[in-house]
C-alpha cells in the first residue's frame, strides 16, 4: 500500500469530536437506539431512557437498506426530522444512515454523524460526497471487505478533506450460520495497532443474537474498541426490524457498567 | 420468499432486447471490450476488431470503482461520450457502468445498457433510480451476495417498472486465493431452472486469470448462460487495469467459435 | 512452492489405469452408484443397471463419515465385501471410501480405487498410508482447502511412491446456502493447465440439488474434467443418505449421452 | 438437533481435571509452549520458564501436520518421550497432538491431554478411538467447521464414553488474509451460553500475528473462555515453525497478569 492518511506513519491518532463527545479518547462511547425510527413518540420515549442511563449518542434508521423492496424502507426524510427533533429535546447527538449522494447535503441539517452502512462501503460516489462535508462519518465494514479495502474506503473520505472518520466493525459474512455474522475482533486489535482511526464495534449485527451481545460487548472493548453501537428498544420483542438482536434498557445498563469496570485497566 | 416478479411462477422468461440483439434468446450474446476506456482512438481500434469478429455488444468503463482513491478513476463523462460515439461509428450497442444516482439520467443519452457493478449490487438507491428508466440493466452479483439477495436486488429494479434486467455472475469471494474470485456456475444453472431473468457470465473477473477464460467460457455456456462478458484488448499486457485477466482478439475469436459449436446441442 | 511431483514441470500428465479403464485419457470416465451401500441385493440391482448403460466404475460407501455419531455409519467391513462381490458379478471396477489407517491394508482386498473423502484430505497419516500401496487413490478436495493444500495432499501420497492419484473437485464451503456447496470449476481448468494429475468432478455433492446435476455435469466436462462421480439410485427418493442430490438411472443415461456429444469437440 | 450429551439440557457443565488443574472452573487455565518440540534441551529450558511464571500446562508438538510432506514433520515418538520427561522434571501436565488412530494407545503413556488438531476434527475414526480412553481431549475446531459440526465431533468422543472433552477455538478460514485466521469469539460466548463443555481459545493460530495476541487473549477471556493456549518460545524469532505468531516469555507474563485482573469481574 502507498502512504495513506489512515496510517499511523502519517500522523497522530484521530479523535473525532461530536458536540462534547470525543470518539477515540479515554472514555468508551456508547451509541444506542432502535434499528428503525418507528415514530416520534416511540423514539422520544427510548431516547429519554437512553439519556438517563448515560448513553452518549442516539441512533435510529430513517433510510433502511432492506433486502426486499417490499419490506418497510424507513420513514425517510420524515425520519430524519424526527431523530433531529428528538436529539435536541433530550440533548443527545444523533447518528443515522444515508444511502444516496443526493441526501448528503440535506442530512447535514438533521444529523450529527452520518453512518455509511455495510452495503454501501464500496459506494465510492457516496464516500466522495460525504468526504466533501465536515460531518463525522461512521464507516461500517462491508460484509466481505478485507482490511485493505475498508481502510481504502476510509481513505476515499479523507482524501476529499474530511478527517472525521470512525470505523465500525459489524461482523463479516462467513460459512457459519449459527450467528448472523462473524464478529471479527482481530481487525479491531489490528487497527488500533497500526492505524489512526477510532473504531467502534456493533455487537448487535456482529452476532445477530441478543443473548451474545453482553459478552461480545466487553470482548470488543478488550480488543481495543473505542466504543459500541448497540440496538436497544423499550420492548425488544416488538421492534419493527432486527428484533432478535435487540436488547432492553436494563440489559444495556448492565453492559455499560461492565464497560466501565473493564476500562479501568487500560 | 414472497411472490416475486423474478420468479417463473409469475410469468414467462424475460428476453431483453438491445437494438436488434436479444439477450435470453437462442443465440448466445458476446459482450466484450476493455476494462477501462483509455481514449477515443484506442477504443475505436478495438471496437472495429470486435465488430469484425461478430461481438454483439461493446463494453468499456467510464466510471471505474477502484479500491484506492489514488488509482485511475476512469474518464467519467468524457468516457461516456467516447463509448457512445464509438458505438455509433462501428454500429454496436454499448454497455457501461454507472455508480451514482445523479448520473443515471445522463447515462441514458450515451449507453444502451447500464451496468450495475458488484460493489453496487446492494446500492438500493441506485437500483430504484435505474428502475425508473426503461434502459436495460446488467446487474452483477455482489461479491458475497446470496442468490436470494441478488434476486431481490433485481426485484428492486423491476418493482419500479423496468423489466429489462439481465443478471451477471462474476465470481464470489471465498477463501481461495489462487483465482481472483470463485466463479459460481451452480447459480447459473439454478437461475435458469427457476427464474425468469436472462443471465450472462463474466469469466474475466470470475477467474482473474487469462489462461482460464477459454475453458470457463464454454463451461458457463453449458451451465446455461445466455452469454458472456469478456475483457479483451488489442494488447492485453498494456491494459490500464485488469491486464492479468484480459485476453487478445485471436483468443476471443477462438472462444466465440467454441461457443457456437457447443450451442448446437441446446 | 518447491518442485513437486504434481507439477507438469516434473513430467508428463498421469493416466491412472483401473483394470481396463484409463482415467485421464480421451474417454471421460463415469463413476456412479449409491451414496451408501444399503444391502447386497440393492447394490446388485443398481450395479446391473449401471453396467448396462455403460458406467465405467461402481461407487458405494461402506464407511460413512456422518456429522452425527447417531446417524447410520455404513455397513463397514460387511459393506466392503458386498461391493467387492457385486463388482465381480457385474464386471465393474469399484471405488469406496476408507477413513482409518488401520483399514487400508484390508481395503486392498476389496476395492479397485480407494476414495479419500473431503473430511480426510488433511489426514496426513492416512495419506501416507495409502501412499505406501499401489492402489489408485481418488483424493477429494477438502471443503475449505486451497489449491495449494490440495496439491500438497496429493504430493503426500506421491512422495510415498504411489503415483496413481486422481483429484476430485466436490464443491467448497462458502457463504452461499442455496446450494450445499459451491462447485469450483475454476480449479478444474487450473489443474488441467498446470498439473499432472487427472481430475474428476462430483456434481452431486458440488450442488446438493438433483435438478442442477445435469447442467453442472456438462459444465464440468467443458472446464476440463476427465470424468464425473455422480450419486444415482434406482429410487432416489428412498436413498438412505443424500437423497436430495441423487439422480435416477434415466437421468444418468441422459447425462452420459450429453457428455459424449460435447466430448467430440475436445 | 437431537438430544445431545454436549447440551446443557442434558446435565451440568463439565469440568475437566488434569492432575490438579481444573479446566472449566473459576481459574483461567494457561497452556503454553513451543509449536514443535525441537529437542530435549530446548523444551526443558522453556518449560522451566513457563513453570516459574505460573503456566498450568505445557504444550509441544511431536507429530506436526504440515501442509507440505517435505516440511519438518516433528520428532514423532521421540518427541512424545521428550515432552513426557520434561513434564515430569518441571512438574507440569503436558498436552500434545495425535493424528493417527494407531498412536492413541501409545500416547496414553506420555501425555496428560491429547490434542485433536483442526485438520482432524472430522476424522471420526480418531475421535472414536480417543473416545474409548479416559484421557482428556482438547478438540480444536475445524478450519471451516460450523458450530453444529464441532459439537457433533465432541459428541463422537463422548458417545464412546469419554466425557473429558475441552473445546478449543483457533480461528476459522474466511476471505480475510491480513490475519492467518479469523478468531470467532462469537462461538465462545454461544458455547458458554448453551453447552456443557469447557472452551479455551488459541489466539496464536487465531490471529497468526504476535502483536495481536495480547489483546485477543483478554478479549477471549471476556467472551467467556476458560483458558488460553498460546505459542511461546525463549527466542520466538528462531522457532522452527509458526515463528510469526509466537510470543516471548515476558510477553506471556504480561498477558497472564492481565487475565488475572480481568477475571476478578466474573
From TrEMBL, chains A, B, C, D:
This is 3-deoxy-7-phosphoheptulonate synthase. It comes from Clostridium ganghwense. Pfam families: DAHP_synth_1 (PF00793). PANTHER family: PHOSPHO-2-DEHYDRO-3-DEOXYHEPTONATE ALDOLASE. Residues 15-262 form the DAHP synthetase I/KDSA domain. Its EC number is 2.5.1.54. Gene3D superfamilies: Aldolase class I. Keywords: Transferase. The keyword Transcription regulation does not apply. InterPro entries: Aldolase_TIM, Class-I_DAHP_synthase, DAHP1/KDSA, DAHP_syn_2. One of its GO terms (molecular function) is 3-deoxy-7-phosphoheptulonate synthase activity. It comes from the Bacteria.
Amino acid at each position: 500500500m502507498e502512504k495513506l492518511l489512515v496510517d499511523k506513519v502519517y500522523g497522530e491518532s484521530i479523535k473525532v469530536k461530536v458536540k462534547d463527545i470525543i470518539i477515540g479518547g479515554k472514555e468508551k462511547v456508547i451509541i444506542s437506539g432502535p434499528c428503525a425510527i418507528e415514530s416520534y413518540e416511540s423514539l422520544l420515549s427510548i431516547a429519554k431512557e437512553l439519556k438517563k442511563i448515560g448513553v452518549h449518542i442516539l441512533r435510529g434508521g430513517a433510510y433502511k437498506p432492506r433486502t426486499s423492496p417490499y419490506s418497510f424502507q424507513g420513514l425517510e426524510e420524515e425520519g430524519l426530522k424526527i431523530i433531529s427533533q428528538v436529539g435536541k429535546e433530550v440533548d443527545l447527538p444523533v447518528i443515522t444512515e444515508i444511502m444516496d449522494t443526493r441526501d448528503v447535503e440535506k442530512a447535514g441539517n438533521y444529523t450529527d454523524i452520518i453512518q455509511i452502512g455495510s452495503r454501501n462501503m464500496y459506494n465510492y460516489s457516496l464516500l466522495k460526497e460525504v468526504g466533501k462535508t465536515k460531518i463525522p462519518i461512521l464507516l461500517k465494514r462491508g460484509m466481505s471487505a478485507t482490511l485493505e479495502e475498508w481502510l481504502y474506503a476510509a481513505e476515499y473520505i479523507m482524501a476529499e478533506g474530511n478527517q472525521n472518520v470512525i470505523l465500525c466493525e459489524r461482523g463479516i459474512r462467513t460459512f457459519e450460520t449459527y450467528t448472523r455474522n462473524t464478529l471479527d475482533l482481530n481487525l479491531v486489535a489490528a487497527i488500533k495497532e497500526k492505524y489512526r482511526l477510532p473504531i467502534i464495534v456493533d455487537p448487535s449485527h456482529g452476532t445477530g443474537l441478543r443473548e451474545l451481545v453482553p459478552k461480545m460487548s466487553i470482548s470488543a472493548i478488550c480488543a481495543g474498541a473505542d466504543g459500541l453501537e448497540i440496538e436497544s428498544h423499550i420492548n425488544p420483542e416488538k421492534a419493527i426490524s432486527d428484533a432478535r438482536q435487540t436488547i432492553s434498557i436494563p440489559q444495556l445498563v448492565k453492559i455499560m457498567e461492565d464497560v466501565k469496570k473493564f476500562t479501568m485497566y487500560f
